[in-house]
């Protein structure tokens, strides 16, 4: 199933509800959720993008309905365009993991505040 606007809004709401999450709109309409200034989710067009662990990047970006995220693939982000291979629960887990990866890059004082 191609991701609907309602599904994207639901995933965006989930991400915004995570501890320390901050919402912003960048680049002419891309909805972004960050923690401590580090992005962990981007919703724009007909898909959503989030960071994945280096070891999972090739596997996840090759699944049906997913691909390396434009402009962010070198940072190991994937773009999800449908729920063909990833269920909504898998996507939520991916967003939560993306937040953890962004959190791990913050200074220790900020990490402790949002863990």
TrEMBL record:
Task: Write the record's keywords in alphabetical order, separated by commas.
Answer: DNA-binding
Pfam families in the record = YjbR
A GO molecular-function descriptor: DNA binding
Membrane-crossing ranges are none
Record's keyword annotation contains DNA-binding: yes
User: What protein name does the entry list?
Assistant: MmcQ/YjbR family DNA-binding protein
* The species this protein was found in: Chromobacterium subtsugae
